[in-house]
Amino acid sequence: MQRIGILTSGGDAPGMNAAIRAAIRTALKNDLEIYGIYDGYKGLVDGAINPLDYKDASEILTRGGTVLGSSRLPEFKDEVVQELAVNQLKRWGIEGLIVIGGDGSYRGAQALNRHGIKTVGIPGTIDNDINGTEKTIGFSTALNTICEAVNKLRDTSYSHHRCFIVEVMGNHCGELALWSAITCGAEVLINQEIGYDEERVLAQLAIHDSFRNKRHALIITAENMLDIQALAKDISAKTSFSGRAISLGHIQRGGSPTPEDRMLGSKMGKAAVEVLMHGEGAKCICQIKDQIVVRDIDEALADTSTKDEDLYDLFNYLV
Ligand code: ADP
Ligand code: F6P
């Protein structure tokens, strides 16, 4: 393989730039040409493509977001649109493609594979929702951002005998909510795996209020689970806490990546280029037990065993 491409797709994630930097440097040091494709699959279809050089890898390691830009292109599920992308790759002489993104972006990579393009996926999303890998790039930074925000909320909440409901991102996956509930010391966790039942939430709060005499309570919920303002009102009306609710929103997607995300991005960017150098495709880069592993993308996406289910048990001991 002489020429490879790289793109970022779906929601941006801190640490994507570390992966881009590692891919550029690994490719150039192995005499491979590497082309940046801008704004994800949209840029691929439109031909927004440029060669990358050492200078493009400089001053990006510490930056959040993605210097290649990202987008969502729902039409990419359409075979005709996929063929437009394949034609662009052929026109530019790009034989292999690195796709950094979430599980949706991986579906796009699988489609390109079916069209004969060798692709390798790097898991880049704050949601940690990709099967086959224990961690995705961006999850650590988002979790850090949530912890910093909740620490501040706890200060004011304690002073006013309040219960804060904090809504975190995660798309359809409850990982960010679960990990932040444990690391921020939440009294109640609501996510897709646990579900939402207001009576259960109020009963759990009552334990902390009357029996443990707490001045502060924290509910962490995954997004799209409930009307958080309505629950805050009910908490004020039905418990001795006053209820307040906040959705942390896109703040969770920004910021300088943590060392963990920089390391993960760096290792995975290098590994992805090596996969293409060996002429392989239909792969993705995973982290399992702190080791970087190359897996068949279909097999990885079908493997749900990489999620740590013991964390639910841990949470139940901690509340
Ligand atoms: P993420 O990659 O973060 O999960 P999305 O689910 O929004 O984000 O997917 C990103 C992009 O990947 C979509 O906008 C679309 O262009 C592409 N994509 C998603 N699902 C498919 C699919 N089934 N087939 C082809 N492309 C897809
Ligand atoms: O996939 C990352 C993510 O931030 C999800 O957690 C969230 O549901 C979604 O993207 C938000 O998307 P948008 O940037 O389109 O608002």
List the SSEs and their pairings:
Elements: E1 3-8, H1 16-29, E2 33-37, H2 40-46, E3 49-51, H3 79-91, E4 96-101, H4 103-114, E5 118-123, H5 139-159, E6 162-168, H6 175-184, E7 188-190, H7 198-211, E8 216-222, H8 228-238, E9 242-247, H9 259-277, E10 283-288, E11 291-296, H10 297-301, H11 310-318
Parallel strand pairs: 1-2, 1-4, 4-5, 5-10, 6-8, 6-9, 7-8
Antiparallel strand pairs: 2-3, 10-11
Helix pairs in contact: 1-9, 2-3, 5-6, 6-11
The chain binds adenosine-5'-diphosphate (ADP) and 6-O-phosphono-beta-D-fructofuranose.
The site of 6-O-phosphono-beta-D-fructofuranose (F6P) has 11 residues, from loops.
Q: How would you describe the overall organization of this protein?
A:
By secondary structure, the protein is α/β, with parallel strands linked by helices. It contains 11 helices and 11 strands. A 7-stranded mixed beta sheet has the order 3-2-1-4-5-10-11, with helices on both faces. Strands 7-8-6-9 form a 4-stranded parallel beta sheet, with helices on both faces. A hairpin with a 2-residue loop joins strand 10 and strand 11 (291-296). Helix 1 runs parallel beside helix 9 and helix 5 packs across helix 6 (175-184). The longest helix has 21 residues, at 139-159. The protein is elongated, with a radius of gyration of 22 Å. The chain starts with a strand and ends with a helix. The mean pLDDT is 96. Bound molecules: adenosine-5'-diphosphate and 6-O-phosphono-beta-D-fructofuranose (F6P). Residues 9-11, 41, 72-74, 76-77, 101-105, 107-108, 111, 125 line the site of adenosine-5'-diphosphate (ADP).
